[in-house]
Amino acid sequence: MIGAWCSRDVAVDFGTATTRVSIAQRARVLECPSRAAEGPALRSGAVVNRDAAATLLYALMQRLRHFGLLRPRLLACVPTDVSPEERDAVFDSLSQVGAAAISVVPEPLAAAVGAGLDVSSPYAQLVVDIGHGVTDCAVIRSSEVTATRAVRCACGDLQAAAAARVMQRYGLELLPGEADRLVRAVGVAPMPGRVERIRVNGRAGSLGVRVAVDVEDVADALAPVITRMLSGVTDLVRELPVLYGAEIVETGILLTGGGALLPGMAARLAAETAVSVRRAADPLRAVIRGAREILPTVARHNLWQHHAFGTPR
CB under 8 Å to 23, separation ≥6 — which residues? Predict the structure, then answer.
C-alpha cells in the first residue's frame, strides 16, 4: 500500500469506534471512524475485518503526508486480553500497509503514559480505560503491567441498550448519534437535576419521528450493562495482593477513554471500588498520545518484531 515515510515510527490506536495515528515526536493526531464501506473494521476492541482495518489505516497514513525512503515501523495498542487470533489480525492489518516492523503495547499502559502518569513509580497504580468496545484495566508498578482485567463491554453496549429500549417502548429506530446523546443525558449514576424526559430523533418505518423518552426507563436498561462493565475493575481490585491494594488506595484510579466522559462514571467507579478516581485531561486521546511517547523507547531497545510480511498493496 505505502512506499515509506520520512518519520519512520508511527503509533496506531485501533479503536472500536475511532482509529487514530500519530508520528513519533510530533503532536499531531489524525483519526477517522473505524468503519469502512464494507462494514465495521473492529468490534469489541478487536480487528474483525483485516482488509477494512488496513484500508482505514492506509487512508490515515496518507493524510500524514510524510513520504520518504523507509517503510514505517508501527506500534499498535491492543486490549490486555487480546487472543493470539486477534493479535494476528492486528499484525496482518499493519503488514498490509507495508510495515517494516511491528510492536504492540497494552492499551491501559499507553493510556497511562499519555495521561501523564509516572509509570516508573514503585507504587502500584490502577488505570481503567473505558472505550467503545472494551473496559480494560491494568495495575502498573515500576514500569511493568503486573495485573490486568478486560471486559468486552463498554460505551457501545450502553448505546445499544439505550437504542433497544427505545425501540421496545416506542417502536423507534434512533438516528445515528442519538443513542450516544441519550446515554450521555442519562449518565451512569443518578444526578441532581436530571430531567425526567428527553426528546430523541428516530424513524418509525419511513417516517422521521421525534419522541420524549422516559429517562428513568432508559437508566433501568443501562444498569446491567454498567454493572458488567465495571465488574472487571471490582474483581481485579478484590483479587489484588494486600500490598498492591493498599498502594492503590493511596495512588487512586486513573480513568481514561470515552467512558471517562460519561456523566457520573468517575463517581460510580469510586463508589464501586472505595478508591478515589481522577479523570485524564484528554481521555479520548490518552492511548494514542501514550503510544506515540512510547515509540522512542521501543526504538531505543529494539523491541520491534520483524516478520516476513507480504508485499504491500
Answer: 5, 7, 9, 10, 11, 64, 66, 292
Spatial separation of the C-alpha atoms in residues 159 and 206, rounded to whole Å: 22
Residue with cell 516508573: 120
Beta strands in 123-247 (DSSP E): 125-130, 135-141, 144-151, 173-174, 197-204, 207-214
Sequence-distant (6+) residues with CB within 8 A of 272 are 230, 233, 234
**Set of cell numbers at residue 269:** 467507579
Cα→Cα distances 183→11, 97, 155, 179, 180, Å:
30, 36, 9, 6, 5
CB burial string 267-296: b at 16+ within 10 A, e below: ebbbebbebebebbeebbbbbbbbbbbbbe
- 78-105 pLDDT, tens digit each: 999 999 999 999 999 999 988 889 999 9
Which residue reads 492489518 in cell numbers? 93
C-alpha grid cell for residue 169? 417502548
Residue 13 is given by DSSP the state E
